[in-house]
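Why should sequence recovery work at all? Because a backbone constrains its sequence more than one might expect. Tight turns favour small or flexible residues, buried strands favour hydrophobic ones, and helices have their own preferences. The token representation captures these environments compactly. In the example below, the structure is given first.
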């Protein structure tokens, strides 16, 4: 069973690709940077736990919240289902598909057979558009092949995996309600909400404070790492290529601000966009320095990255303060 007249969203980031596919079925077609921006998606986190092999550096808000924000800002009904029952989890998805609705699914990408880079990541999203006796037919990011398939067994394992960022077999659908959206109004709302959250992190490893903290934490990480090559090369790849759109999501936000200025013509948005051009370039420099750390194990590249991160913390704070005043 496959949904007819189905068009996938072609994207680089998993959650915007999955949710964008659901939106296309509703006739809502926006660019990926616009989806990311309207979802108030920009963030930062330096996350380190004893159970992790090495720290995680992330550039967006936490999983699930992006889609929640997007549905709210676009006046759409988001229905999320979770269950610890594997049987019920499949029924939740199958029922929606049989009714002709594309379904968003959160899972651990490690088990998906088309993934060549086998890393456990339970915060991955796909859209499901069909199934048969053997396979699930999915929409993933462009770099993963866009329209792909994986066995039903692999899907079951992926959905039921436990660990950081996982959920209990989460699936979701989105429906229109009797309210339209005003793109000019929601751009302003989304920008100001994102700026407010970024500037007021609840703990020191989030937002611009997290960027500043990371400038020191990477030095400790370098000294204590048991596998410098693995740690820093993998981190560089995750920051630049693992669905972030490049520059740890700053390319997306830069382009969102450009689109927003073209629509609203607000001077502070233009200024912030110009700042994010530089910010994005600097994040690319940080990831390239991490790559060099992995290749050479030379502390000078860590020290150089640390100095850039100090500047980035200040620049992102200033850009968000501009956006808070629109």
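From this structural description, the recovered sequence reads:
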């Amino acid at each position: 069973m496959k949904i007819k007249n189905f068009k996938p969203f072609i994207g680089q980031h998993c959650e915007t690709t999955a949710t964008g596919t659901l939106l296309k079925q509703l006739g809502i077609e926006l660019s990926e940077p616009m989806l990311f921006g309207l979802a108030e998606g920009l963030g930062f986190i330096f996350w380190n736990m004893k159970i992790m092999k090495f720290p995680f550096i992330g550039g967006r808000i936490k999983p699930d919240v992006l889609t929640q924000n997007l549905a709210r800002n676009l006046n759409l009904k988001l229905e999320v289902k979770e269950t610890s029952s594997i049987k019920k989890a499949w029924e939740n998805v199958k029922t929606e598909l049989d009714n002709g609705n594309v379904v968003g699914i959160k899972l651990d990408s490690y088990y998906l057979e088309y993934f060549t880079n086998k890393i456990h990541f339970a915060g991955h999203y796909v859209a499901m558009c069909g199934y048969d006796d053997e396979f699930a037919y999915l929409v993933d990011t462009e770099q993963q092949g866009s329209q792909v398939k994986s066995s039903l067994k692999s899907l079951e394992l992926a959905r039921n995996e436990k660990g950081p960022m996982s959920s209990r077999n989460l699936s979701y659908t989105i429906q229109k309600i009797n309210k339209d959206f005003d793109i000019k109004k929601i751009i302003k709302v989304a920008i100001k909400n994102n700026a407010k959250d970024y500037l007021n992190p609840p703990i020191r490893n989030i937002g611009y404070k997290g960027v500043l903290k990371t400038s020191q934490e990477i030095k400790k990480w370098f000294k204590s790492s048991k596998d410098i090559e693995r740690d820093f090369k993998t981190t560089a790849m995750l920051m630049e290529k693992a669905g972030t759109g490049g520059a740890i999501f700053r390319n997306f936000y830069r382009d969102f601000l450009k689109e927003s200025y073209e629509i609203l013509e607000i001077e502070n948005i233009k200024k912030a966009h110009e700042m994010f051009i530089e910010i994005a370039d600097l994040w690319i420099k940080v990831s390239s320095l991490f790559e060099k750390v992995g290749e050479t194990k030379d502390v000078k590249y860590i020290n150089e990255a640390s100095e850039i991160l100090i500047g980035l913390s200040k620049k992102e704070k200033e850009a968000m303060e501009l956006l808070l005043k629109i």
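A few observations help interpret the result. The longest helix spans residues 267-296.
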